[in-house]
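Let's practice the habit of predicting before peeking. Look at the sequence and jot down your guess about where helices and strands might fall. Then scroll down.
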Amino acid sequence: MSLCAGIRADGGRCGAQAIRDNQWCFNHHPDYEQARQRRASKGGKRGGRGRPVAELAALRAENADIRRRLLEGELLPGIAAVAVQSINTDLRAVSAALKAREQEELVGRLEELEQALETRGERQYGA
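Done guessing? Here is the structure:
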């Protein structure tokens, strides 16, 4: 296999292996520019799955505080019940947001796979 003909940002030649039957690697191939930009635009924003663990930890701490205050007599049972219902609503919102993010990620990955298969088919059949 040959080396990529691309030029790095520092002016040196890319040392990666070129894609089979091509002169560029994935990072320099013009056909993959949109896929690279899509991936780069996500960089550093997701933090795993959108940092739901931190949100859940805050909700658990708030729930524990309400329970402690109820048991110590600082809160009336009705007020504590409404507060816990509000926390449950927040939990459902976090769960829905997480599912939506996962679905968006899966759709993006599926689109990339479809594009790669289409490009492979065009190369293979000369279309």
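How did you do? The first helix runs from residue 33 to 42.
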